[in-house]
Design brief:
Layout lengths: L3 E8 L3 H12 L4 E4 L8 H4 L11 H4 L5 H6 L9 H15 L5 E2 L4 E7 L4 E6 L4 E9 L21 E4 L21 E5 L3 H13 L2 E6 L6 E2 L7 H9 L1 H9 L19 H12 L5 H4 L9 H18 L3 H6 L14 E2 L2 H4 L5 E5 L5 E4 L3 E4 L3 E3 L2 E4 L8 H4 L2 E3 L6 H4 L18 E3 L12 H22 L4 E3 L1 H16 L31 H13 L5 E3 L1
Length: 541
């Protein structure tokens, strides 16, 4: 493995890394994937905490490029649990025979571009090196777990787990069997991950203390098993399912209603919200009136509706108010999909600790000390999120032309062209990267476009004998401005969230929209137009 030479190196063996490997191998290129984990799966390998599952429909999530894979795989639930998803990705890895080109237990420490040779050299944690003409990041947007910025984390003597680093079941695909029964458990965080964990822990814990800084708007998942008849229908209509996804803003099965929330009657608006709330999945967020995420008055209507639902589900009125966000409107952060989450707080063993009222002062040997009390705990679960979108890249020492680091270039926020490349870093590509249309998306649907587009670019360079590509500064500036412009047309910039690169556990991180709010149909169109114009905006040689 030391100083091995390849045409292409890919970092990460998740959904994008595996597909990209398979596509480039078909071009006859020598490709090596380096994966920090012991197996494939990416997000679904690392995130195996109790309760982890899809919140987009299973049959809209898997790969679409292979009829054989589609025909041979049956999803058991409308929103599959993590072990099933990881089993699926291992099934795909077997079908595509990709493991032979993946090095596991291999965390990339640095990547340095050699201008004279037009090659990237990577170094792994074990000191071994490899080089390639092209370097592709397939690290994903949520793959850099972030511990809390609280003193004393290392002082705690009980059981402690971060949701993004949960121990794995050595005999299966899911989490290790860690019992909660009879234990005093503290969960820090009430984002999408925290909500899923809380629902599970609440079932058996002796006492559960939920440490909440900021409540989130949650909506019912309404998951169910897929019966035999529905399974047949899914297999018979995959083309229709994927077409429906391709026509929506985020490549989900849910498409915005063309009406404005402001132009219908109060009765019509209420009935539509009720319909969405009673429907499975993201419809309440992504299938709502067209202006809920862009117009404050429309958003207020949606927020008021969901607030009333929370009040109806939580018996204690004062507690209900603590669970209703007051600092942001519905859907302006990533909406956690839940199953009886609010009902957990009606249980006598579940306690909400509002850490805005009584901030955490430190982690102690015995538990968590707030301004008002010390909570002795047998277990602490950190659902404190990720250094989102750019975090995995920031943790690798990536040096481009002149030795400038990617972290330095993106100090004030990411600057990219199509979310795929950045100037000063030739032949380095980011799949599902910052400002990429696939990052605010039903990710596998959008990954396929990213991978196929990049494969075509590389094939075109092969055919023309070209060795180097990077965006022009003008193209990068124009795309970055376009990303900012589309973000400003929404309400997202009004809120601190990982969409804006904000995690309260990372002090000093600049607030900047990390995704692409123009919608995936527009992103796909722009990518196609650029390719049709000879990859306009890219400097190739």
């Amino acid at each position: 493995m030391s100083n091995a030479q390849y045409d292409v190196i890919i970092i990460g063996a998740g959904i994008s890394g595996m597909y990209q490997l398979w596509k480039l191998r078909k071009l006859g290129l020598s490709v090596r994937v380096y994966e920090a984990g012991s197996g494939v799966g990416g997000t679904w390998y690392w995130n195996r905490y109790p309760g982890c599952r899809f919140d987009s429909e299973s049959y809209s999530y898997g790969y679409s490029f292979s009829k054989e894979i589609l025909d041979e795989w049956d999803w058991s639930e409308h929103f599959a649990p993590q072990p099933e998803t990881l089993k699926y990705l291992n099934f795909v890895a077997d079908k595509l025979d990709v493991r032979k080109d993946i090095t596991f237990h291999a965390r990339v420490k640095s990547a340095v571009f050699d201008e004279a040779a037009t090659r990237w050299t990577i170094e792994l944690d074990d000191g071994s090196k490899a080089s390639a003409g092209i370097l592709i990041s397939a690290t994903g947007p949520l793959s850099a777990p972030q511990m809390p910025n609280i003193p004393g984390v290392s002082d705690y003597k009980g059981e402690a787990y971060h949701t993004g680093m949960w121990p794995r079941d050595p005999n299966g695909y899911g989490p290790a069997n860690i019992p909660f029964a009879g234990k005093r458990v503290g969960v820090l965080g009430t984002g999408a991950t925290g909500v899923q964990v809380i629902q599970e822990v609440a079932k058996t814990a002796g006492e559960l203390f939920v440490f909440q800084r900021t409540p989130n708007w949650c909506a019912p998942l309404l998951n169910s098993k897929i019966d035999a008849e529905t399974q047949k229908t899914i297999h018979a209509t995959y083309d229709k399912i994927f077409k429906q996804c391709s026509e929506s803003m985020g490549n989900f099965l849910h498409k915005n209603d063309p009406r404005s929330a402001l132009e219908v009657s109060d009765a019509e608006r209420e009935a539509f919200f009720e319909q969405l709330y009673a429907s499975p999945g993201f419809g309440i967020w992504l299938g709502t009136f067209r202006d809920v995420l862009t117009d404050q008055r429309a958003n207020d209507y949606a927020s008021d509706f969901v607030a009333r639902k929370i009040r109806s589900r939580v018996k204690d009125p004062k507690l209900a108010e603590k669970l209703i966000p007051k600092d942001h409107g519905f859907g302006l952060r990533r909406v956690p999909m839940e199953t009886n989450y609010y009902e957990c707080y009606n249980q006598p063993n579940v306690h909400l600790v509002d850490i805005k009222e009584a901030p955490i002062e430190r982690i102690t040997a015995k538990g968590i000390k707030t301004k008002d009390a010390e909570y002795e705990l047998d277990m602490i679960i950190y659902a404190t999120g990720f250094e989102a979108v750019t975090g995995a890249l920031a943790r690798i020492d990536i040096r481009g032309v002149g030795g400038k680091t990617l972290k330095e270039k993106w100090a004030d926020g990411p600057q990219t062209y199509l979310g795929m490349q950045t100037t000063g870093f030739p032949n380095f590509f980011t799949l599902v990267g910052p400002n990429n249309g696939s990052t605010f998306c039903n990710i596998p649907r959008c990954i396929e476009q990213n991978v196929e587009w990049l494969t075509d670019l590389i094939a075109d360079m092969q055919a023309k004998g070209l060795k180097r590509v990077e965006p022009s500064q003008a193209a990068e500036n124009a795309w970055t401005d376009h990303v900012d412009e589309t973000a400003r047309a929404t309400l997202f910039p009004t809120v601190n969230s990982w969409f804006m690169g904000v995690n309260d556990n990372i002090p000093g991180r600049k607030k900047k929209f990390m995704l692409y709010a123009g919608g995936f149909p527009l992103y796909r169109q722009k990518c196609a137009e650029i390719a049709a114009k000879g990859y306009e905006g890219f400097v190739r040689g």
